[in-house]
Amino acid sequence: MINHEKIKILILDDEKQFTEELYEFFQKSGFESFEANTIQEGRKILNDREIDLLILDVRLPGVNGLDILKEVKMQYPEMEIIVVSAHGDMETVIKAMRLGAFDYLRKPFRHIDIQIAIGRTQKYLHMQRRLKQVEQRNSLISKTLEEKIERHFIGISPKILEVFESAVIASKYPDANVLITGESGTGKENIARIIHYSSERKDSIFCAVNSSAITETLLESEFFGHKKGSFTGAINDKVGFFEVCDGGTLFLDEIADMPLNLQAKILRATEEKVIIRVGDTRQIHTDFRIIASTNHELEKGVEEKKIRLDLLHRLNTFHIHIPPLRERPEDIKPLMIHFVEVYALKFNKPNLHIDKEAIDILIKYDFPGNVRELKNMAERAIILCKGNSLGINDFPVTARQTFSTEQNGGSINLKTHEIDLIRKALKNCKYNQKAAADALGITRDALIRKMKKYDITISRIEE
Fold this sequence. Notes:
The protein is of the alpha/beta class.
């Protein structure tokens, strides 16, 4: 246990009575404490003192407390933060924990509650300080292990083992392009990383680009680069993705979201391995490998003119299809166990485990958001879990309801029930798709896909 005088605590809250009361309590308890009632005061103390623990109110006038939390964790990553609030907003709690908060207390709380929370923090700070020197010595090894974890793909089903085998074969041909298909959330980028890091290109860059996340007017500049002065805002020469990936791998996520005219230019660059920057005439040779992905059916994508057929032929040297999680339920258990271990460690709940009954029930759920939904479900459950065991009640209602329906002999049509759940979630969230998807425990892409599948529209919900 660390001595009290070695831990410096800052209380940042706009309620002066609250900060004074906590300050007095901490001083009497032997801690070195400071108080601030404004962001400016808080920043000055953080700058002048080596604070170990911040008690932060997430409801501060004129600012978003979560933004302050994010700012503090970026500037002082080793500082621990206990978030307090008079509001029991679970979404805020979840966001705070994801941003790095160590603990959460709801106002009003007793002195014993803050004592217990600080006790947990003390133990964690003590462990962190003891491990810091070891971590510094092994930083290079740790980074390598982290990279391996990031590209690790877990599964035991015959279907996923077939995907592994295809990825291994593709990695042995570092100049061959690869096209990976599968629904959103199945892990297409993970497979792309496995191919890259298992190939001769592993020592060069792996660059993942989501075409839909780039403004259409900047797409060509982002891929090919541009020459200074070639258009308004081009104040410097810029290197594009193709040059950056010389010797490495360019992963084009959701290729079907890319405009057809840019697809034609990418096809030519892929064939010739030569590019010209926007506003320039000089040819630049670059050796890159393309791995592309799409969640569209290939034939349908070509028919709807979302994917150029000639580009499809060029990228489709190796075609790897990742089946959705509902078609390989035997992978749900190892994936869930893995995510529970990862997030239990992240949120300092090392003794946490998931009940066998919960796993058995989750296996019956179809996971429309695939592995991404399962991962988010595990993270949320661990954040909100009060004990050392995760049960079925710790997971979203959609998963629980699926099992409940089966228990009742299938008296409710699952399709009808799912439609009803989606309609209610959209209505309750004022038709905000992101909020409705979060309420259902799935991704926004999965929700949109379900809405299209069941022909759910806002006008029909309001009828």
